[in-house]
Write a structure and sequence with these properties.
alpha/beta, Nucleotidyltransferase, domain 5, five-stranded mixed beta sheet, 3 helices, 25% strand
Length: 126
């Protein structure tokens, strides 16, 4: 049986890092068209989606027959926690990139790959 790829996506201002949690391979992609402003990290959906897709393509995943499970985290501009609107934007952008399940981390402290994998594998985590 095929397993869904498991990714950890880190969002910074005009930069996305995608990590394949099963292989440890990591790709950082800088936005060609900026998606951040001085005030908001995820201000424009289309350029953010393009950047995330480019990072995922860099991992050379085969995702045509099954969807991806994603832990997504905004690592900048989330002092005091993410607003509901920011969480929705992160969920939407991950789903636009093909995620079947999205787990949002509301912290600026970068996770280890093991911690991100635990979040995906623990069905009770939300």
């Amino acid at each position: 049986m095929f397993k869904s790829p498991k990714l950890y996506i880190q969002i910074r201002r005009n930069q996305v890092t995608a990590v394949n949690l099963e292989t440890g391979e990591e790709v950082t992609q800088f936005a060609i068209n900026p998606f951040s402003t001085q005030r908001v990290v995820l201000a424009k959906f289309d350029p953010a989606n393009e950047t995330i897709l480019a990072a995922i393509r860099g991992l050379h995943l085969k995702t045509t027959f099954f969807a991806v499970k994603v832990v997504i985290q905004q690592l900048e501009g989330a002092e005091g926690g993410l607003s509901d609107i920011e969480k929705r934007a992160l969920r939407d952008i991950a789903e636009m990139a093909g995620a079947k399940k999205v787990y949002i981390v509301d912290s600026e402290q970068k996770l280890s790959n093991g911690d991100a994998l635990t979040i995906i594998d623990d069905d009770s985590w939300r």
